[in-house]
Write a structure and sequence with these properties.
Length: about 700
């Protein structure tokens, strides 16, 4: 068996250094351990075998010292610690290796809670995964009010908090709050909480401001040791753990349908924490961690995480950033909901004037009013200050004429999805803006090249496709037309970065990436229903993937009219692969918002519009039909050069369609299932090494 140290040969070792601190008010000497990997906050401290060994050695040096009143742990500036070194973990190929990793973490971390003297964790910065678990093992915890991220994100990646988190956290803050941090937040786009919220939940016993955090923490620790401060914690053993676990399992089934094992294992461990001894609980974590480290879901999760953290930050094919032009004013054509969301985002992120135009004053007032109302909500939630709110309101204005765009550097249209309408809009804008002004379109399916064909300067037209809701969805498809030049493209990518979006370069092809694949996917499911497959059977045929919503729920969200329009556009481009459902057209004609009632029970009248087919399929037939169609379409897109690599397809599906991390996007799943005749990714990528 390969020694686990060899798997972590590239580990950036987090060193644990010890120095003595004399506590205030004569409380005695504290051995303060500082965790630091030698880099600044942009490379947070993690733990592989080397880091765990260093912490173990520091604890060895402290053990048996009779002169100590306490032991403290603190991180380097802005970072406490962010958990295990997952690069090495992804190389594990034997279960015994996986068990070693779990047991080594427990062996070292638990010593902090089993010392002869009290231990204090001073959480001065980001604390995630194993980093938070270090703090949980300590007797007491303080936290800085400025901590930006506290989380146990393991379930997001296909793991469980396996170094004590599932056992210690529910006993500290109660099972319901623990479910939120361990399961709910990771499955909600890996949500993090800040220091203040962590303190409010009881994760920490005291909170201090960042400026003098360590000094105040040491003073507080001194008061605890002297008996001047008593830390009292609620006894959660009497809580209804069974109901909490049952409710959480019900919600997991609704969201994942059993597709990802990690959250279910985490829930089992949380339930065990109520009665298990420390040894029993930690041993169960070891077994769960070993099982999951040997699973494809972890590799898929790490693959998707790497896409989001690395590839999204250095988009393939993007021109040199130095070519980007400065944007000092933005114009938005249209004042509907999508346009108004964009205007708010531009104002918040770019902090430049943003002007909306529309056809009449009522629409314009509604759009600008929406932006101002959203700013008021941000103010009420404390997300912006009063001064910031005033500045943002002043930045967003409206105009009935496009003359207001004369000094704009970036104008984006968000009007009706019709080629002639968009061509007319661009011609009107081009007449008033400078020759260098970027003209962007938020089209979801139309040809960018055709849209720019009648302009004097088609080279400055670029696709800038947001996803709804604009403020939440992280993906931005940046589309290069046949004539789009590098300066325009570089400016679009620079603006995307300023908007804090993850941008992917896409060729000008029908519906680009996300809408092309979702339309094909939905079209196959709707086609099966048209042929006579019961609607609910077809709608739930792909539940095993753990997708964020079923196809007909997605149809409800998108709107049947929009879905029909995109299907018609795609049918015109690829008639042999994209059909137009007559039943969907009847649904639109009937004015139905979808097949579900507001309570998401099926609407009998809407379902009846899909009756009439005589060739029903089984659920498995529907599943294979949809997946084979996706595999075919992805292969064609790669052959056409719509994106540069399968990784860009996966990045788009994860960030633009909510495709689950535990699948790794779409291509790893298709590879693992053997759906595609030729693999999209090399063996071992997003799957267990052979």
């Amino acid at each position: 068996m390969t020694d686990i140290k060899e798997l972590f040969a590239d580990e950036i070792v987090t060193r644990a250094t010890v120095h003595d601190v004399e506590l205030p008010q004569g409380a005695g000497t504290m051995a303060l351990i500082t965790l630091d990997n030698g880099f600044d906050h942009t490379k947070p401290s993690t733990f592989g075998p080397g880091g765990l060994a260093s912490l173990g050695e520091a604890l060895d040096a402290i053990a048996g010292r009779g002169d100590l009143a306490a032991v403290g742990v603190v991180g380097k500036p802005f970072v406490f610690a962010v958990g295990a070194d997952l690069k090495g973990a992804a190389l594990v190929s034997e279960r015994d290796q996986a068990l070693q990793i779990g047991r080594l973490g427990h062996e070292v971390f638990r010593r902090l809670g089993e010392l002869d003297v009290p231990s204090f964790a001073f959480v001065n910065g980001a604390a995630m995964g194993g980093g938070l678990e270090i703090a949980l093992h300590c007797t007491y915890r303080t936290i800085s009010a400025g901590v930006p991220a506290v989380a146990l994100p393991e379930c997001f990646l296909g793991l469980v908090p396996g170094w004590g988190g599932t056992q210690l956290l529910p006993r500290l803050i109660g099972p319901a709050a623990a479910v939120k941090l361990i399961i709910d937040n990771p499955l909600s786009q890996n949500r993090m909480i800040k220091g203040r919220e962590a303190f409010g939940l009881g994760v920490a016993d005291a909170m201090f401001e960042p400026a003098d955090f360590l000094e105040e923490s040491l003073r507080w620790a001194s008061a605890v040791l002297r008996g001047d401060v008593t830390v009292s914690r609620a006894d959660h053993t009497a809580e209804d753990w069974s109901k909490t676990v049952s409710d959480a399992r019900f919600l997991l089934d609704m969201k994942l349908h059993g597709a990802s094992p990690a959250p279910y294992r985490a829930l089992e461990l949380l339930e065990l924490a109520r009665t298990a001894t420390r040894d029993e609980g930690f041993a169960a974590e070891d077994q769960a961690l070993a099982d999951l480290l040997m699973g494809d879901e972890l590799r898929a999760g790490l693959y998707a995480f790497d896409l989001v953290q690395r590839r999204a930050k250095k988009p393939a094919g993007a021109p040199e950033a130095a070519l980007a032009r400065k944007v000092t004013k933005v114009g938005v054509v249209g004042a509907g909901l999508m346009a108004s969301q964009m205007a708010l985002l531009f104002a918040r992120r770019l902090e430049v004037p943003v002007v909306l135009t529309d056809l009449d004053q009522a629409r314009l007032d509604k759009g600008v009013g929406y932006v101002h109302a959203e700013i008021d909500k941000l103010l009420a939630k404390g997300r912006v200050s009063g001064d910031q709110a005033n500045r943002l309101r002043a930045l967003v204005t409206g105009s009935l004429t496009k003359d207001a765009f004369a000094d704009a550097d970036f104008v984006i249209e968000a009007v009706f999805e019709d080629m002639k309408v968009k061509q007319k809009v661009f011609a009107e804008v081009e007449a008033v803006v400078s020759a260098e002004c970027v003209l962007a379109t938020n089209t979801s399916s139309l040809s960018l090249t055709e849209m720019a064909s009648g302009l004097r300067h088609p080279e400055r037209v670029v696709g800038f496709h947001f996803f709804n809701p604009v403020a939440v969805m992280p993906l931005l498809e940046i589309v290069r037309g046949e004539r789009t030049d590098d300066a325009t493209l570089a400016t679009a990518f620079a603006v995307g970065r300023s908007l804090k979006k993850s941008s992917v370069l896409v060729k000008d092809a029908p519906a680009f990436v996300v809408n092309r694949l979702l339309t094909r996917f939905m079209g196959e499911v709707i086609g099966a229903v048209d042929e006579g497959t019961p609607l609910e059977l077809a709608d739930h045929a792909l539940d095993g993937l753990g997708l964020p919503m079923t196809p007909f729920a997605l149809l409800q969200l998108v709107g049947p009219a929009v879905a029909l329009h995109v299907a018609e556009t795609m049918h015109e481009a690829f008639p042999s692969r994209y059909g137009v459902s007559e039943n969907l057209a009847r649904l639109v004609a009937a004015g139905k918002p979808g097949v579900y009632a507001p309570d998401f029970s099926t609407d009998p009248e809407a379902v009846a519009l899909f009756a009439g087919g005589t060739s029903p399929s089984t659920a498995e037939q529907v599943r294979l039909r949809a997946l084979r169609a996706l595999a075919e379409e992805i292969r064609l897109m790669l052959d056409e050069g719509v994106v540069s690599a399968p990784q860009d397809i996966d990045l788009c599906m994860v960030l633009g369609a909510g495709w689950p991390f535990h699948l790794g996007g779409i291509t790893p799943y298709l590879d693992r299932e053997g759906i595609s005749e030729v693999r999209f990714l090399p063996p071992g990528v997003a799957s267990v090494p052979a």
